Amino acid sequence: MSSQLPRWVDLGLIPVINLVLAFLVAGLVVVFIGEDPIQAVRILISGSLGSSYGIGFTLYYATTFVFTGLSVAIAFHAGLFNIGGEGQAALGGIGATLVCLAFNWPHWLIALPFAILGACLFGGAWAFIPGYLQAKRGSHVVITTIMFNFIGSALVVYLLVNVLKVPGSMAPETRNFAEGTFLPFVHEMLAVVGITVSKTPMNFASILALAAAFLTWMLIWRTRLGYEMRAFGFSEPAAVYGGIDPVRITIIAMLLSGAMAGMMALNVVMGFQHRLVLDYVGGAGFVGIAVSLMGRSHPVGVLLASVLFGILYQGGAELAFEMPNISREMIVVIQALVILFTGALENLVRAPMARLFARRRVEAA
Amino acid sequence: MGATGADTATGRHGDAALAIELVGISKSFGPVQANRDIDLPVRRGTIHGIVGENGAGKSTLMSILYGFYTADSGEIRINGKVTDIPDSLAAIRAGIGMVHQHFMLVEPFTVLENVILGAEDGALLRPSLAKARRELTRLAEEYELQVDPDAIVGDLSVGFQQRVEILKALYRECDILILDEPTGVLTPAEADHLFRILENLRAEGKTIILITHKLREIMAVTDEVSVMRRGQMVRTLVTAETSPAELAELMVGRRVLLRVEKTEAKPGDVVMDVRDLSLTDASGVERLRGISLSVRAGEILGIAGVAGNGQSELLEILAGIRPATGGTVSLHGAPLDLSSITNADERRQSRMAHVPEDRHRRGLVMPFAEWENSCFGYHREDRFDGPFDTLNRVAVRQHARESIEKFDIRPPSCDLKTANFSGGNQQKIVLAREIERDPEVLLVGQPTRGVDIGAIEFIHQQIVALRDRNKAIILVSVELDEIQALSDRIIVMFDGRISGERMAGKTDERELGLLMAGIDPAKGQAA
Predict the structure, then answer these.
(1) Which CATH code fits A53-295?
(2) DSSP H/E element including B41
């Protein structure tokens, strides 16, 4: 049915309608708890997009979601539902941290390639195990990746508390990195060309995220590997017929997916916190699932959906601050509604739209 | 309105001698008009055939009658009375039963449980089961519909499963029975039995609609036949007054060759040799038991058999996508690796090509654009190299356009999604890809399954042309007509064994039919 819809409806109109529906229901919830929904939207938007400060934070969050969203998208094209981004990102954090702590790096440009390698290796390794189990043993990745989130989380806690913690400190976090590993902040980079913006955590990793989106697009739609991944994702029997080894392609797809999830460490750990703190992923791995669903597993869609979730995160924080009745948890409810309407209930709007457009075309013919 | 009023009641309620009358039925899906202003009168107590190519709208029409779709316009009259059929429950209530091409049975349930499913009398099963058991005994005697009521459906052969479907419909007291391509999975003997059942049902005054693409069956059992083409009803004829050639012409809209024109084969050297091939599946069932055969250059070796007797497994082992558990296969004397499912690439490199039985699941990636499928399996070849291990889109699309031209693939657009091509054109995409590579051995499974008559002709010509270029061809088909039309030599498989081998010119349908049922024609007993 979807092929009968014009592209702009499929990729533009339907997501927007879903979003509007999500906000309408969220608005009802806001009314229900005794706040003004119009005012809430105003705070949400101005808090996230109304100032260079808000925009910086919004894009900082969005950058994180681009990495985790692309991670889900890559696996999805190979027919694998990797919901282990949370754990893979946590391990990626370990990888990047170990690289950053290993030397007294003279310049971030030198440290960056190694940090990328570390983050990708650790994130990839954490996805490799479920990928291997799926490919060789048929253990479903949905089950194994979510279990690996818990194992990963426990592993990181162990490492932070017992191995990487600063001796004598009570905080389960590593020592600060050397300054030679700090990715430049965007406000610093803009200052060089004479533009002054508020100080925000937005950093060079945002550019990496754009590059990652482009490379993902190249991978999926231009390379032979992506071609094989998509063929495998659509039909495993066809892939076997086409001479594609299911074991190999499953493992490669999971490795790439895990590596991409690990890349988020660059934004948060290397770009902003400059040390590894407990639970630094903070649910971004799961947001990546929503981002990928909403973005139709297309890098451009992932970029747009990431910005939307960045707005919800940053604007939501402002909202919780401005409106005492709206707690952090309420923001999560609103985000959940967006996920529900854009992901799970997508066909709610799709079927009537398909009918509407089918009728219009018959009349036009 | 009872059957007794058949002679008198006419007029604005329609002709009551008609069990079903469809008037002006139209239905479109988006831009596709599947049914256009269709009139179909089906007389009570007759077997009425509906023929047409794939996509002619037969299935849509029957789905409307059975309540799966609602027509955009038009009306349905049942026994002369205008009837609304919004869902299949309404259809059942109106006395319509349907036997689908793919059975709607719960395999782990017994026959009885399947029969009462959805027609239970109350919360407790026991009374319903007892009633169904009595009813089944009666139906079995009346219509030659013997099935063990306590057998697990999954253990039954397809022929028996089909009987269960018919019993289900009869148990719901249907007067009108629709059968969609019922003989596709049956041996000739089973098909004959089915036709006897249908004749018994007709004798009891039931009305039967038979959808099929096999003209032979239409000629054999129907009283009247309606021909559909491109969503329209072309004509309804009395079967006795028509011929297969006329029906084929009406279906396609032009004259068709029902037989393949080919010259005598000139077999050369043995190209591929199979010795003692065996396969035991994961659950310990022997699928292949010591298959030995060889195929020569310049001949078409047909492998006949009812679906599920090991032909598919044999083809897949030869194609390198299923491991064998024993035996050897050699190509030009060199052994092939039979140990894994990932040998397809290696086979292609040794110039073997494979047109798989199931083009939807295997042969094509349906959501891909046509050009992406035009190189599938050959996409690693140097000719499609782009920078950074990318696929050279210019080269692939050029290749796709050439295939489209050469194989007359329609619509001629390599950017169209593969799923949007018709069955015949999808098959041409596969054939073009495999034949254009100029293989030494071509493995073909069900080349014309779900393909319209016009395309069948073309596909058969291409296969024969490849043979005439001195290539070896192994053809697996469950269509005996096709095997007979194309093959130079025929091997029949039954229960994982070769039950017989015949030269194509020196055998007939009866003999092959017996071999397909595992009976040695010479002895007249199970082999």
Answers:
(1) 1.10.3470
(2) strand B32-43
